[in-house]
Amino acid sequence: MDADDRFAINKTVYEWSVRAFALLEKRLSVKITLHHADGELDAGQIFVFNHFARFETIIPHYLIYKHTGAFCRSVAASELFSGNDTLATYLRSVGAMPTKHPGLLAFLAAELLRGRKVIVFPEGGMVKDRRVMDGHGGYSVFSRSAHARRKQHRGAAVIALTLETFKQRILSVHAAGETARLERWVQALGLDSVDALLEAARKPTLIVPGNITFYPIRIDDNVLRRGVERFSRGISTQASEELVIEGNILFKDTDMDIRLGEPIAPGKVWKWWERLLLDYVFRRIESLEDLFALTHDSPRWQERLFAMSMARQAGRIRDAYMHAMYAIVTVNLCHLASRLILHYVNLGRTEVSRDEFHRTLYLAVKCTHDEPAIHLHRSLAEPEGYEGLLEGRCQGLEQFLNTAERTGLIERRPDSYHFLPKLRAKQAFDRVRLENPIAVYANEAAPLLGVSRAVARAVTNIATLDARALARLRFDDERLAYAADRARFSGPQYAAINEQETATESAEPYLLVPKASNGLGVVLIHGFLSSPAELRAFAERLAAAGHPVIGVRLKGHGTSPWDLRERSWQEWQDSVRRGYRILAPFAERLALVGFSTGGALALGIAAERPPRLAGVAAVSAPIKFRNRNLIFVPLVHHLNTLAEWLPAFEGIMPFRPNDSEHPHINYRHIPLRALYELRLAVDDTVRRLGGISCPVFIAQGTEDHVVDSRSARLIMAKLGPVKTKLHMVETDRHGILNENVGGTQEAVLAFLASVPASVRTEQTAAAETADPPQAAQPVDPAETADAAEAEVSPPVLSPQMAG
């Protein structure tokens, strides 16, 4: 139990190493995310992790010290401690112990009593194929040294169980008043006092299971492998493979999710006969070394029986933490795609149409959301991670397919994916990550029954998934995206702005489908700085009139001004396009109705002539603004961009206050970047107005204090030969649609009632006679500038810009 001075942790070296890695982490492309419960790192004493890459043996030490200040012990191959004094000295200084160190387990248990933490990799080596289950559902891994599969190591369980038993001995000695013995243990452990020893004995010995998941796994060659090969006389196949995989993890964008599970207490419920054995053993042991020395070869039968009982319990504890460790994989898109492909292969299918594969994979993603025991990576949890999956334009899927095709696992044909025989071929242990990453992903997800259920449900239900059911799943994505965006921009770094916001209405998108539909669906688009809540009352009125309605949420809105600051005008357009696709199955015809910026976006999307578009209504749509200071927005935007290059200086004017007509639904702060994007969005609409071929309704207040009323006639003039209606309202209010000033809502309802019932024929005829959509041309800045009558003043850039 005495501390080995040769292996004393050097605090200076340890802390220097932590600082060095913190600096290195900022330079690497790997993104480390730690998922854990409050207090878990402090309470945990033994941490067990899976093992896939060499450098991950460093990460847990760094994270535990960063969060708790505690030093960690770990175990490394004994060969590393011989032949290289510098390396051996360093390893000892940062807490590493050789596997063949005499009395290793007792030493680690003593370190736990001294307040250290212990990190264990029970697989005993890298599990490159991620295959951790045998054919009977039990856990085992491949051993390179034995060339066979074996159970994971029990070292962590033995340490925890034996230490917990010794803690009982400490407390029983204290209860018996044997102070001299306690003092000897205090001295042997190097503790400050008997009280410190008793405090350590009263703490539960907790094993914390941890799982490290990488996404994605890349097989491209990289500079690390090429550099090593260039400056050496050639490297082994094993080393080359490891440098390729691990170099890509370090130097290319990779997510490293480290997830901690529920702590496991090894406390044993002793049977009556085991208590007798325990009392017998306690009379004969003086130290941790004595307790660890008890084995099935001990000279006394009582000790042998006690050792066998402890061994059985250690096996159960090992199985418990291995199950917990493999159950907390962070499931990503590649896991699902791999399991789906192998599911098809196991069904005997060698080919699947692209459309079926994309739809089934998307449905599998949605099914994982119903599996509460699965921990999802953002590629599955957040719609942005799987956006475009149904259309086959998902970045994560494309990267996965490129890798699978390059490794000869699948063949992409024009309308299908063909599964190649190599998928089922057995690969060498040190080549499997390069030759069959689909198997690696599938093996990693194999212990998770929820993943298998999600894939099986998707395959079974895809044939009956109709258009409306799919649309409702898409709408659910919009709700999930809102929640994810809101969470992403709710951290303390955004609090100064967020805490001043005044919006109280729910900003969630909504989908209203009346029981008795009149066949005309309405895509409702809110204004700048606002949210779907702005037009919710009008949406309910539309639904009462028989119109299916979707209230889309423009990206960046309804969450935080910081979110809006990060969004582009193209993302606002995409929000409208998604809303249009969602609503399409619920109506024979569709109309776009937008307010203010939403009106401009509605006109721009109408110019794309989406299928079954019957009409477009734009209320208070901006072409010209009342405040001439918007002329300065591009200048300030570019100054902000330059200022961000300066350390600790976040732009010269990132936000301006907003004096809104409706503070309960609008942002109180305007991001200057967003004003710049607004200018670009309006300019894009102006360029494309001539491409609109459906009937158009324009409404505008005559004295609108935000949008110059001349915008309405400028829009009308650029529309070309289409049926148009203009509704001017005598008012200085901007929000004439949600406030229903001058009967604007009734006018929109009347317009919707007037649109043609036969969309296809009339739009086709109009398209044949109308000019094609105008190509992008430079716009005269004066045409989209603010009203000429506004006086030029210093760039105070925040009039009432809501909408």
Tags for this model:
803 residues, alpha/beta, Rossmann fold, 3 domains, seven-stranded mixed β-sheet, 32 helices, 23 strands, disordered C terminus
Describe this structure in words.
This protein is α/β, with parallel strands linked by helices and 803 residues long. It has 3 domains: 320 residues, no CATH class; 127 residues; 259 residues, Rossmann fold (3-Layer(aba) Sandwich). 44% of the residues lie in helices and 13% in strands. The protein is built from 32 helices and 23 strands. It has a 7-stranded mixed sheet with strand order 1-9-8-2-5-3-4, sandwiched between helices. Strands 15-17-16-18-19-22-23 form a 7-stranded mixed sheet, with helices on both faces. α4 links the parallel β3 and β4. α6 packs across α8, α6 packs across α13 and α11 packs across α13. The relative contact order is 0.07.
Topology, please?
Elements: H1 11-27, E1 30-35, H2 40-43, E2 46-49, H3 59-68, E3 72-76, H4 85-93, E4 96-98, H5 104-113, E5 117-120, E6 141-143, E7 148-150, H6 155-175, H7 179-189, H8 194-202, E8 207-215, H9 223-230, H10 237-251, E9 254-260, H11 272-282, H12 288-292, H13 301-326, E10 330-331, H14 333-346, E11 351-353, H15 354-368, E12 375-376, H16 378-381, H17 383-386, H18 395-406, E13 410-412, E14 416-419, H19 432-435, H20 437-445, H21 449-461, H22 467-488, H23 495-498, E15 510-512, E16 520-525, H24 536-544, E17 549-552, H25 561-565, H26 569-583, E18 589-595, H27 597-606, E19 613-619, H28 633-643, E20 655-657, E21 669-671, H29 672-688, E22 696-701, H30 710-719, E23 724-729, H31 744-754, H32 759-769
Parallel strand pairs: 1-9, 2-5, 2-8, 3-4, 3-5, 10-12, 16-17, 16-18, 18-19, 19-22, 22-23
Antiparallel strand pairs: 6-7, 8-9, 11-14, 13-14, 15-17, 20-21
Helix pairs in contact: 1-3, 5-6, 6-8, 6-13, 9-10, 11-13, 14-15, 14-20, 14-21, 15-21, 22-26, 26-27, 27-29, 28-29
